[in-house]
Amino acid sequence: MKFSTVILLLSVSICQVYGGHRFGYSRAEQRMWSRTHQGCSGKYQSPIAISSGKAIPLTMPALEMVGYHNLLPGPILMHNNGHSVSLSIPKHTKEEVEGGAFMPYIFGGKLKNEYEFEGLHFHWGDKNNRGSEHVLNDIRFPMEMHIIHRNKKYANVSEALEHPDGLTVLAFFYQLIENDGSELQNLVRNLPHIREYNQSELMNTTFSLSSLLGNLDTERFYTYKGSLTTPPCSEAVTWILFPDTLTVSVSQMSKFRHLSNGVEGSVLVDNYRALQPLNNRHIFVRKVNIKSTPLEGLNKEISYIKWDWLY
Ligand SMILES: *[C@@H]1O[C@H](CO)[C@@H](O)[C@H](O)[C@H]1NC(C)=O
Ligand SMILES: *[C@@H]1O[C@H](CO)[C@@H](O)[C@H](O)[C@H]1NC(C)=O
Ligand SMILES: *[C@@H]1O[C@H](CO)[C@@H](O)[C@H](O)[C@H]1NC(C)=O
Ligand SMILES: [Zn+2]
């Protein structure tokens, strides 16, 4: 994928209304989640451990990422909500998007609908051997990015959370490298401005989602039905995880680890939820065909049928 150009916008600090909800990640605190949010003790929770050998290979359409190469309709709002760094496009911007710009959306894979970009955030560790929420073949990566998409048939995220097909989250793992990659640089540069809990900033640059993904291979992915990994843990998420990894440098990683979580003298690290039981769910892995066959259309329908009996 191609890097985006970066355009200058404005630099204003504003505050965000939602996301003020507090919860902690210590073992004891995570056990409390289900006391305040019944959803967190559900049977189809996330994250989970994925093992490539146990995933069911399935023929399904490629994931189409529409508008991922376009610059996001800015300005992009960056927020330290005390449990992550989140990026989103303020609501008023969405309604005033000019010149035919649109929010990126995805379809394909096992998705039956189009899902529109809502925002993204990260999970990371205090040490390099932890941080990702999902575990792939026993590996816990130092960081995981979640790009959240809402089913277009629902008006907003709160409504989408009420439905099993409400959201799709694309999950990307990071590996540590020595030198700064350009993919995260825009974002990391602004982290010091949102060091404190509940600080927000409108970035003076915008970028495309594909600029965050570099040359990542999106052909092969795992998919399963699960939940939000934070309260209220709604079982509304189709997860799509990519085994190909993105990169983050040691120095970029340390900027994430310097953010405050709002507790005096404490930093925002290890914001990942404990692994949840798979129970009777299946994890599918997309079979990547060397060359596509005329049967592709037929296979699509078959794979959709298999999906439904789970719910
Ligand atoms: C976060 O900031 C917003 C805007 O300043 C404010 O309305 C809200 O009360 C703050 N939330 C917390 C939990 O401090
Ligand atoms: C979400 O959409 C529903 C249905 O249109 C509406 O009733 C609700 O007020 C909206 N919620 C938010 C937070 O915008
Ligand atoms: C944009 O933001 C960056 C990082 O905060 C800053 O270094 C730069 O000077 C800003 N540029 C303008 C034109 O405001
Ligand atoms: Zn997340």
Automatic annotation (TrEMBL):
Residues 1-19 form the signal peptide. Pfam families: Carb_anhydrase. Residues 21-287 form the Alpha-carbonic anhydrase domain. Its EC number is 4.2.1.1. GO terms for molecular function: carbonate dehydratase activity; zinc ion binding. SUPFAM superfamilies: Carbonic anhydrase (SSF51069). Keywords: Lyase, Metal-binding, Signal, Zinc. It catalyses: hydrogencarbonate + H(+) = CO2 + H2O. Its cofactor is Zn(2+). GO terms for cellular component: cytoplasm. Reversible hydration of carbon dioxide. Belongs to the alpha-carbonic anhydrase family. This is Carbonic anhydrase. It comes from Hermetia illucens.
